[in-house]
Structure formats: structure tokens, C-alpha cells
């Protein structure tokens, strides 16, 4: 009986802990807008991205954005306030801002500067890219970011999402072939780094959609450092990386 009660208490605490991951920003959202905007949750950001009406701005340096960013966002570095203003012709409808997580202050600084310019309704996704990934979302990698990783990160794993026939005919040097539905098998046979889920994984395919779908499935297996190429295998060949 004691063990059963302990198990129930543990389950309740675990569930509460997961919900608490975003509770601080939820509380701030409910308190209303401050002079420099308000925070939004991952769920709210997902809805905004799906609607596609409000610009989502990654205020990190360009190289960081190229390596990985939230799909659908644009990159404008934190000091380029005028460029951000150009995306918001209606000052009463501010953008979404994000950077490198709860302890990254770029979002706060930019929100304050935009507010001083008269922009209102500024939305801050303070949890940033790390928490976006922690909640099972994948990220996007530009061609230049792929090149940087390919040339400098010898631990990265490149995943070819194309058919086995296409993979056999030619692929990125060192890449593994993985199809939808093979993730569990890949965990066991070494194609995915089962003992190190923080390893950088970049998926590419015949189309961006094909790569994104597989990268998302991989992210749902707790490979939080996964992303997909915002391009195709043919784009990689034309870039002359090998």
C-alpha cells in the first residue's frame, strides 16, 4: 500500500514539473502587457507560426541562426532595430522575439528598444530555441550552416532521408540512410547515437518537406539537437562541399 501511494505521489509531482516548465511565462502573459511587451508560451508561438501573420524574429548573430533556428523565423541581429521596424509597419502589432533561452537577454533588450520607438504588443518568446527543442520541435539549418557543421563538427551525424536506392547512388560523405519508421531500429544498430542524445543530427533529403518530417520524428525520440536542411541534396552537391 505504501509503495502504491508513493508511486501515485511521484506521478503527480512529475506531471506538475513538466507543466511548470513554462508556468513563469504563462503567469506573465496573464498579467497583461508591460511597457516592453509580454511573454508567450511555446504553444502560443506555434499558433503564431502556423497563422503566418506576425513576424518571428531571431535576434541572435547570423552564424547561430544559420546553424539552427526555429522554422519560419527570420534573422535580424539585436542592434538592427530599424530593420525590425520595417517588418512592423503597424506599430500597434509588434513582432515575436526570441534568442538563446531564459538566460539570454537579447530578447529583453530588443523589446525595450522597440518599445522606445513606439512599437506595442511586442511578444517575447523568452524560452527561446533551447526550450523549443526541449518540447520536441526540430530546428532548421541553412545551407551555410550545414557547410559550417560539415567542415568543423566531426561528431555530427548527417542523415539522408531519401530512398535506399538514391542513397546508394550518392550521398554526403559519412551520412547514414534512415527512412520514416526506422527510428527504433536505428537506435539499436548505431545509425542514431542512442547513448548520446545531445549529438548534433542534421537531416537532408530530396525535398525540404521530406527532411523536416524525418527530423521532427527524430526530435520526438528525445534527440533534442536535431535539425533539417532548408534545401535539398542537390543543393548540397552544387555547393561543392566534397
Protein described:
By secondary structure, the protein is an alpha/beta fold. 45% of the residues lie in helices and 12% in strands. The strands form 2 sheets. It has a 5-stranded parallel β-sheet with strand order 1-5-4-2-3, with helices on both faces. It has a 5-stranded parallel β-sheet with strand order 6-10-9-7-8. β4, α6 (106-116) and β5 (123-124) form a beta-alpha-beta unit. It is elongated. Mean pLDDT is 89; it is low at 1-21 and 23-32.
Q: What does the secondary structure layout of this molecule look like, with pairings?
A:
Elements: H1 2-20, H2 23-31, E1 38-39, H3 42-51, E2 56-58, H4 62-67, E3 74-75, H5 81-86, E4 96-98, H6 106-116, E5 123-124, H7 128-134, E6 139-141, H8 143-152, E7 157-160, H9 164-169, E8 176-177, H10 183-189, E9 201-204, H11 208-219, E10 226-229, H12 233-239
Parallel strand pairs: 1-5, 2-3, 2-4, 4-5, 6-10, 7-8, 7-9, 9-10
H-E order = HHEHEHEHEHEHEHEHEHEHEH
Shape: elongated
Care to count the β-strands?
10
How many domain units?
2
Helicity, as a percent range: 40-55%
What's this, in brief?
This protein has helices at about 1-20, 25-30, 40-50, 60-65, 80-85, 105-115, 130-135, 145-150, 165-170, 185-190, 210-220, 235-240; strands at about 40, 55-60, 75, 95-100, 125, 140, 155-160, 175, 200-205, 225-230.
Tags for this model:
242 residues, alpha/beta, Oxidized Rhodanese, domain 1, five-stranded parallel sheet, 10 strands, 12% strand
